[in-house]
Each structure stands twice: as structure tokens, then as C-alpha cells.
Amino acid sequence: MENVNDSEQVAPLMRVCKKCKATKPLAAFRYTLTRAQAKQQGFVGKHLVTAEGKVCKECRPKRKPLSKMTNKELTQKASTGDVHPLVAKMRIEQNKRDANLLRKAGRVNRWEQIWAQEWEDVLAPMKTHLRKLNQVKRLAKLYGRKSKHIFLDFYTAALRKEMARLTLHYKTQLCRAPYTRWEEYVPEDVRDKIDDAWLAMPFEERLRMRGKPDMVNYKYDPDKYLRKQVKNTDALASRKALLGKPAKIPRETPAPVPKLTPHKIDVGHTPKTRLLKGEDVPVLREPPVKEEPWWDNL
Ligand SMILES: [Zn+2]
User: What is the pLDDT of residues 214-252, one digit of tens each?
Assistant: First the structure.
């Protein structure tokens, strides 16, 4: 009986792959040569030539797909005839469109950074306020001021929750912060609950507390802290601020202004002409002669 697994007895229409050692039909080893490869093997290169390789289709290193080729490679392939010139042209145009989209995505991403910065600026005072009140709460507990501790415990927990909600909101929604103050973002029911908790504290305790917490009796006014509509110039300014240094424009250094120095007269020099009486300096310039009208001499 014939041993089917013996490679020497495999039918000639089958071949063993050199790499994966699998026995496969010859069709799996056939591949089309590129124009350059065909010419190298002595063909004219006008028609597509197939060859049989030593490794199967799966093991053959994959050719670079058209979608991953650069514009330069596409032009080259078009010139050798491996890619139809029209296909190469369309691909190059597509690549250019993609590059523009990528650039646009970059711009959008920068806007998102600006918006996130706006939110962080809004939430930073809230964070500071919370930290401060947490400390006050700890001291209240330490000094046994029970009602104050109960109020602050409720207050800080409510604000912590609000802060978590707002942080999640701005990190997922990618939008602008409509108000410039964090208090405006606390919903009405939470504000009411805080006011109730404040009133539940004994009057003396409320009086003893130095400074009311920010959210107690907060006067809600949506128009007051509404962020202004962005003008084009504002957007540009904020973007410039974010992107860093302003562009350096080389300027010509202005020529130094000559200093006005008093004219020095050389006193040691003896003038050849005799000095007239009353003249203590040598005459450097003739005084302007007043022209008399010609008819005076008549
Ligand atoms: Zn293989």
C-alpha cells in the first residue's frame, strides 16, 4: 500500500511548502510577477507572467497594498505599468483628501483641549473650596461641634458628587463650559438641600461659623456668569495662548539717534584775523545779511 504522507510519492500536481511544510496543490504556489520581475527573468513585460514559487500563498510575504503606498510609490508603479495610471491618479487624490482630513482632525483636537482647559479653570476654585471645607470639617469633629460637623459632612459630600458629575460630563461630551462659575452648575434641588441643611444647624452655631460656605444662599443668576459668545478674534487669541509662544517677527533695529552735543570751539587756536571788539569767539558763519530793497539806493 502507498504511503500518502511520504513527500516523495506526492502526485506532481501537489507541492510541499518550504516554510510551513504543508502539501498543497500547485495553484497555491503560483503568483503573478510584477513587470520589473518579469523583465528581470527575460520576459518582454507586455503580458502578465505567472510563476511557481517554493512557498505557498499564505507563507509568501504580502505585497504592500495600494492603500498603504505613498504617492511617490504610486507614481513609480504607474510608470512601470504595475498599476493602471488612472488608478494611481485616483489613489493619489484620495491620499491628498485624507491628509487634509487628518489636518482638520488635528485642529478639532486642539479645540477640545481649549474647551477642557475652560472646564478645568471653572472647576479649580470648586476643588479649592472643597479642600478648605474638608479641613474645617475635620476640625469641627476634633472640637466636638456635632451639628457643624453634620452640616459640613453633607455639604462636602454633595459638592464632591457634583464635581465628579461635571468632570465626567466635560471629559465625555467635549463641549464648552457655558458658565464661568462652578456654582452655576449645581442643580436647584441640590442647592435647596444645602440650604435646608444649613437652616437645620442651630442659630448660634451658624453665627459662630466664620464665613458662610459658598453654596449657602447662593444667588442663582444664569445671565450673570454666562460665558460670552466667542468671537473669531477671541477664539484665535485663546488658541494662540494655548499653542504657546507668539510668532517672532524679525524687526530691523532702529538706527541710534545721534546725541545732541554742544559745539566745541577750539580756544587754543589763534585766529589769523584780528578779533573785533565785542567779539569773543571766532566767527564761524557769516551773519545773514538783511537785503535792502533796491530802491533805497536810488
Ligand atoms: Zn506555506
Answer: 888 788 777 788 877 656 566 666 666 666 655 566 667
How many angstroms is it from 82 CA to the middle of ligand 1? 26
The secondary element (H helix, E strand) that includes residue 80 is: helix 71-80
CA of 151 to the centre of ligand 1 (A): 74
Q: Which of 111, 63, 66 is nearest to 90 (CA)?
A: 66
The answer to whether 246 touches 240, Cβ cutoff 8 Å, is yes
Q: How far does residue 55's CA lie from ligand 1's centre (Å)?
A: 5
Ligand 1 centroid distance, CA of 15 (Å):
10
Q: Ligand 1 centroid vs 51 CA: distance in angstroms?
A: 16
| Confidence band of 2 (pLDDT split at 50, 70, 90) | very low
| H-run or E-run covering 12 | none
Report the predicted TM-score, pTM, of the whole model to 2 decimal places: 0.47
